[in-house]
Every structure is written in structure tokens, then in C-alpha cells.
Design goal:
mainly alpha; 6 helices; about 0% strand; about 65% helix
Length: about 180
């Protein structure tokens, strides 16, 4: 099974840069920035994010479903459902959490490299192609839609439970009126 292509190396330090001219350095910079932005914002990355969100929701849903079956009474059937839901949920959650953690570590390394290569030169005309506005909007929409569902917030808030009217103390005049009427 082939391994993923490694991340590009960081730019060389100022003292040992060996580009023949400024245009060669800008060409190398553009190639690396294009590769890093494609890896960070590309469609496969977006689909992996959606898969991770779906797996986290599935695992947490299985654990939650197992816990809900416990209810107020304790019987062996609900214990079996708790065990099945808990084991299934943990079996999905644990590998997904590790995969997300490794992905976050790789993303932070990509971000560092992106910043280092971008700091080599400032070329607004050439850098405009790295913004990827369509993919950025897609990431924004997917993230804003998946964040509330992944955090467990309800789609529709429940109305607050009905409370009894608070008891108020009677004033002395209301006591007097109550005595005179009855």
C-alpha cells in the first residue's frame, strides 16, 4: 500500500538560499503553495471532514441510545441494549478520535509550512489564485451546518417545563378583605 506523498520541506534559511533568480524562487513558492492549499482545502479533505463528523455522531448516538434504554427501571434487556450501544459507540468513537487528532496535527504542520512559504515574498497578483473562494465557501457552509449537530445542540429548542405559579404573601389588607367577606 503506497504511503501518502510527504509534505514539502520548509523553505531554506536566508543564508543558504540557492535560487538562481527571484522568478525561480517565486515559481518554487507558487508550486509549494498550490500543493499545500490543494491539500488543505481540496474536495477530498472536505469529504474526509464530513466522514469524521458522521462517524463521531454515529458513535456518540450509539452510546446515547444505550444510555437512554436504562430508564427508571433496571432489567436485563435494557442492560443488554446498554452494553451493545456502549460497545458499538466506543468502537466507532475511539478510532475516529485518534484519526481526527492525527489529522489536526498534520493540518497544523501544513499551516506552519504554508505560512513559512508565504512569507518568502509578497506577490498579490500571483497569490490571488491560492484563495480558492468556492472551496472556502463550501468549507464555511459545511462547518456551520455540522458544528451544531456535532455538538449535540437540538435542532428545535424544547419549550421550558410548565411551572406552578409562585406563591405570593398576602398583604394585611387582603387578609382583612378575606375576613370581612367570609
Amino acid at each position: 500500500m503506497p504511503r501518502r506523498t510527504p509534505l514539502p520541506p520548509p523553505p531554506p534559511p536566508v543564508g543558504i538560499r540557492t535560487w538562481p533568480d527571484h522568478d525561480a524562487m517565486l515559481a518554487d513558492r507558487a508550486a509549494v503553495l498550490d500543493d499545500l492549499t490543494r491539500r488543505a482545502l481540496g474536495t477530498p479533505r472536505l469529504l474526509l471532514f464530513l466522514l469524521a463528523v458522521a462517524l463521531l455522531q454515529l458513535g456518540w448516538g450509539c452510546v446515547g441510545a444505550g444510555l437512554v434504554t436504562m430508564g427508571p427501571g433496571f432489567d436485563p434487556v435494557s442492560l443488554v441494549f446498554l452494553a451493545v450501544g456502549g460497545v458499538t459507540g466506543i468502537a466507532v468513537l475511539v478510532p475516529t478520535v485518534f484519526a481526527v487528532a492525527f489529522g489536526v496535527r498534520r493540518d497544523s504542520r501544513m499551516r506552519e509550512l504554508l505560512c513559512q512559504w508565504a512569507a518568502l515574498a509578497h506577490t498579490p497578483v500571483r497569490d490571488a489564485g491560492f484563495r480558492k473562494p468556492v472551496l472556502s465557501v463550501a468549507w464555511l457552509l459545511v462547518s456551520s451546518c455540522s458544528a451544531p449537530s456535532a455538538s449535540g445542540s437540538p435542532s428545535r429548542p424544547r419549550p421550558p417545563p410548565a411551572r406552578a405559579a409562585p406563591r405570593t404573601a398576602r398583604s394585611p389588607t387582603s387578609w382583612a378583605r378575606a375576613r370581612s367577606c367570609g
